[in-house]
Write a structure and sequence with these properties.
Keywords: FAD, Flavoprotein
Shape: globular
Radius of gyration: 25 Å
GO molecular function: FAD binding; oxidoreductase activity, acting on paired donors, with incorporation or reduction of molecular oxygen, NAD(P)H as one donor, and incorporation of one atom of oxygen
Organism: Candidatus Dechloromonas phosphorivorans
Oligomer: single chain
Cofactor: FAD
Structural class: alpha+beta
Strand content: 25-35%
Protein name: FAD-dependent oxidoreductase
Number of strands: 28
Number of helices: 16
């Protein structure tokens, strides 16, 4: 038990299959009720897809585990109804500082621009996130959350997968049309299917200590190389909710994990760092090694792997849960269209393609961070220390400092779902980019763009004056709503005005949309349900929009 958190015990309910003796069949079954599995289940259930979630436990994660949730993950959590709770409970931060021995040599700001709803990061113990997700899941009809239901075998078939499940009342079987596997780094389902996960295990060990203390440290990320209180190694400090601080100590590969977790070993390390007069309580301790690995592909017929079950990275950089939540966001809109018969199941191949690309990007950045943090040779160590020394006074060296490149969303610019640009644009909102946020207004009500976009395809059309939109053009806009794939056309304008009946206007009063999207009157952005740009043009053409929509859903021939 933790001093700052009381673990909930979720009720076990006997599944209907045990009573009926029959094999249940469901459109989607999710294995694993961690952050990624719950995020996927909630997103599907919100869109009307019945989902069963199976988990062999009956509570949330032990210890704080995942800590940092990045802006992109928060934007996804907003869409599934838990973003506000996470930000309210968590510690928001944008600034990180890096120290070499006793001096600060480098700092960064994750969100240097104003006018974004969410901060660059929040720190929040994983058990809170899971609790909020369980609470949200229980609000949704069609989401059957089954605790103490352990999957013991999986038999994939061409039209789904059959699972054998053990419960306190005995075993039963159920069949899923589609199976989402979110059962973590030691995925039992992956093992049952004899699927490999390949990559590197780094020969170093790190100690995690969660410490409860009253301190006036700012809400920032602090990272030390070779500090006087832990010479020759690195240390990371994060503030979390409830006055809990996460401290990571590099130990070296020769350290004995069981010895290092003992309070008589941990407490002197913390005292050396914080000073003898600082009062604190040790709440949770763990020892881990870096791993950077992934499956060759994340789709295996009707079985789809997400999160740590599919890929693992080192914790420096906050890429684990953040990338897993983006997996679920990428997968669920595609699966929903396939289930509705509005897209071929080849669309799900793009889930694997896009998220394998993202995993490789995360693994590359994580590996580079690990190599900088834990040099493998005297030459590498000398190079790193020279970079840190020079970074105090020289900007060029600061770009080489790598204490963990922090999680950012992948730009899926190589995706076959994108329609390449025909027109010239400046800025970052290229096809494949995750959307930037912007403050907007509609009918006098202020809102954030990303709160009104997502879960469906949308075309944002920049107009000079909404009231002056030609009637024929307005009919073309509205005709797109009747496409087989749901699509909404929304007008964006710096000028307030009433649009033709049946159309909405987002007013870009501060000009942030125009600035961030290099948008001028006539510009059109086609947005995917996961808030990625998939096409853009300088002038509206209904035929081009339809073709891009077909391409984005694998319906083009």
């Amino acid at each position: 038990m933790l001093g700052t958190y009381s673990y909930p015990k979720f009720e076990y309910v006997a599944p209907p299959e045990l009573k009926s003796g029959e094999t249940g069949r469901y459109p989607v079954v999710v294995v694993g009720a961690g952050p990624v599995g719950l995020a996927a289940a909630i997103e599907l259930a919100q869109s009307g897809v019945p989902v069963v979630v199976l988990d062999d436990d009956n509570t949330v994660s032990v210890g704080s585990r995942g800590v940092c949730y990045a802006k992109r993950a928060l934007e996804i959590l907003d869409r599934i109804g838990v973003g506000d709770a996470c930000v309210a409970r968590g510690v928001s931060w944008n600034v990180g500082r890096t120290f070499f021995r006793e001096e600060e040599v480098y700092n960064f700001n994750l969100l240097p621009q104003p006018d974004h709803k969410r901060p660059g990061m929040i720190n929040l113990q994983q058990y809170y996130l899971e609790e909020f997700l369980v609470r949200r899941a229980r609000e949704l009809p069609g989401l059957d959350l089954r605790f103490r239901n352990k999957v013991v075998s999986v038999s994939p078939a061409g039209n789904g997968a059959t699972l054998q499940v053990e419960t306190p009342d005995g075993a039963y079987a159920l069949t899923a049309d589609w199976l989402i596997v979110a059962d973590g780094a030691r995925s039992a389902v992956r093992g049952m299917m004899n699927l490999d996960i390949e990559g590197r295990v780094f020969l170093d060990r790190f100690l995690i200590a969660d410490v409860v203390m009253k301190a006036d440290f700012p809400a920032e990320r602090w990272f030390w190389f070779d500090p006087p209180f832990h010479p020759g190694q690195s240390v990371l400090l994060h503030r979390q909710a409830d006055s809990v601080y996460r401290i990571d100590f590099q130990l070296g590969w020769q350290a004995d994990p069981e010895e290092e977790k003992k309070p008589e070993k941990v407490i002197p390390r913390i005292r050396a760092m914080l000073g003898a007069d600082r009062e604190f309580e040790l709440e949770w301790v763990s020892v881990y090694t870096f791993q950077c690995r992934r499956m060759q592909q994340f789709r295996h017929g009707r079985v789809l792997f997400v999160g740590d079950a599919a890929h693992q990275v080192s914790p420096f950089g906050a890429r684990g849960a953040n990338s897993g939540i983006q997996d679920s966001d990428n997968l669920c809109w595609k699966l929903r269209l396939v289930l509705d018969g509005k897209a071929p199941d080849s669309l799900l191949d793009s889930y694997s393609e896009e998220r394998v690309f993202a995993a490789d990007e995360n693994i590359m950045n994580s590996t580079r961070s690990t190599d900088f943090i834990t040099p493998k040779s005297r030459t590498s160590l000398n190079f790193r220390n020279a970079v840190l020394t020079l970074a105090r006074d020289h900007a060029f060296a600061r770009t080489l400092v790598n204490s963990g490149r922090l999680s950012v969303p992948s730009f899926l610019t190589g995706s076959r779902l994108n329609t390449p640009d025909d027109d010239a644009f400046a800025g970052d909102m290229v096809p494949g980019a995750p959307m930037d946020d912007a403050p907007m207004q509609e009918d006098g009500t202020e809102f954030w763009l990303l709160d009104r976009v997502g879960n469906r395809f949308m075309a944002l059309v920049h107009v000079e004056d909404p009231a002056a939109v030609d009637a024929n053009l307005a009919r073309e806009f509205k005709s797109l709503a009747g496409e087989p794939i749901p699509l909404e056309v929304v007008l964006v304008s710096a000028k307030p005005g009433r649009a033709p009946e049946g159309l909405r206007v987002f007013e870009d009063g501060r000009g942030r949309f125009a600035e961030r999207y290099d948008s001028t009157p006539g510009t059109v952005y086609l947005i995917r349900p996961d808030q990625h740009v998939t096409a853009r043009w300088r002038a509206f053409d209904a035929g081009r929009v339809k073709a891009a929509l077909a391409r984005a859903t694998c319906n083009s021939h």
